[in-house]
Amino acid sequence: EVHLVESGGGLVQAGGSLRLSCTVSGVSFDAYAIGWFRRAPGKDYEGVAYISEDRPRYTDSVKGRFTISSDKRRKTIYLQMSALKPEDTAIYYCVLDRGPYYYRFESNEVDNWGQGTQVTVSS
Questions:
Q1: What is the pLDDT of residues 34-81, one digit of tens each?
Q2: Close Cβ partners of 90 (under 8 Å, ≥ 6 residues apart)
Q3: Contact yes or no for 87/102 (Cβ under 8 A)
Q4: Opening angle at CA 64, ends 63 and 69, nearest 5
């Protein structure tokens, strides 16, 4: 059974930084794309970043501010978030996509979801 366990959310002022972590178990760490979605209050799920075969992909709104990375030994991925904005406020979910089109950032193609971690950016 696949488990994705997030940590690292919290409250930060605009312009600040946070790092999210996601530990993966129950699946071969290198086999699939692993990444992050988020959901702001009253909005749909939004893909944020994926990493697959050490290649990162980002949605346009976070390019240049967020960095996704992985530690294969720890079976953990990270999302380093900098220059945070109030519109980044959301629940952030670690996700796994077994398909070839993960880079389309479509939530209905996600195979596994973590429980989510809250990120709140104050203005």
A1: 999 999 999 999 999 999 998 999 999 999 999 999 999 999 999 999
A2: 38, 39, 40, 41, 43, 46, 119
A3: no
A4: 80
Tokens 């999302």 -> residue: 79
User: What's the CA angle centered on 73, arms 113 and 53, to 5 degrees?
Assistant: 65
- Distance, in Å, from the CA atom of 39 to the CA atom of 53, rounded to the nearest integer, reads 26
The three-state DSSP-derived secondary structure of the chain is CCEEEEECCEEEECCCCEEEEEEEECCCCCCCEEEEEEECCCCCEEEEEEEECCEEEECHHHCCCEEEEEECCCCEEEEEECCCCHHHCEEEEEEEECCCCHHHCCHHHCCEECCCEEEEEEC
